[in-house]
Specification:
168 residues, alpha+beta, 4-stranded antiparallel sheet, 3-stranded mixed sheet, 7 strands, globular
Length: 168
C-alpha cells in the first residue's frame, strides 16, 4: 500500500512539473498568431516571396527560379507606419500601442496548416530568438501543397535589431 501511495505522489509531482514547465520561457506577454496569412496586405506578400518547399525547378538558371528567394523572412514592426505598410485594416487581435508593444513577423514555406504554439522567447546580442512548436498529428491526409505561411507575434517592446524563428 505504501508503494502505491509513493508511486501516486511521484506521478502527481511529475504531472505538475510538466504542466508548469510547458509555460517556461514565454516572456514579454507574447502571443503567437500562427495563421496571420489573411492579415498581410497582398502587395507586401508579393514584395516578399520565399522559396516554396518541394518546388521542382527544371532549369535552376532561369531568372524566375524559386531558388533565388530566401527560405524564410522575418520582420520587426516597431511603429504605426511599418504596421500600415504590412497589415490590412481592422485586425482586432493586433490592437497595439507602439509605445509599449511591437510585432514580430515570420514567413516561411510549409505543407501543413497545423496549429503552432509559442515555446520560448529570448534575446541574445540584440537578436530576438523565437521558438515555436507545431502540433503533432499522426496518420495520413494531413499535408497540403506548399504555401507561404505567416506568423505574427505581438509582445512587449524589446530592444532588438534582428529576429530568428526556430521550430522545436
Amino acid at each position: 500500500m505504501k508503494k502505491i501511495k509513493n508511486f501516486s505522489i511521484l506521478m502527481v509531482m511529475i504531472l505538475i512539473f510538466n504542466l508548469l514547465s510547458g509555460c517556461r520561457g514565454v516572456k514579454y506577454n507574447a502571443v503567437l498568431y500562427d495563421m496571420a496569412n489573411s492579415w498581410i496586405k497582398e502587395e507586401f506578400v508579393e514584395e516578399n516571396p520565399i522559396q516554396l518547399t518541394g518546388d521542382i525547378i527544371e532549369n535552376s538558371t532561369d531568372s524566375n527560379s524559386n531558388e533565388r528567394y530566401p527560405l524564410e523572412r522575418s520582420f520587426i514592426v516597431n511603429n504605426e507606419q511599418e504596421y500600415k505598410k504590412i497589415f490590412i485594416d481592422g485586425i482586432e487581435e493586433l490592437n497595439i500601442d507602439f509605445e509599449e508593444q511591437m510585432i514580430l513577423i515570420y514567413t516561411f514555406s510549409t505543407i501543413y496548416k497545423r496549429k503552432n504554439s509559442l515555446r520560448s522567447i529570448s534575446v541574445e546580442d540584440k537578436t530576438g530568438k523565437i521558438v515555436y512548436q507545431m502540433e503533432t498529428k499522426y496518420g495520413i491526409g494531413d499535408a497540403c501543397p506548399p504555401y507561404q505561411r505567416w506568423f505574427a507575434v505581438k509582445l512587449n517592446k524589446i530592444d532588438i535589431t534582428a529576429v530568428e524563428f526556430q521550430e522545436k
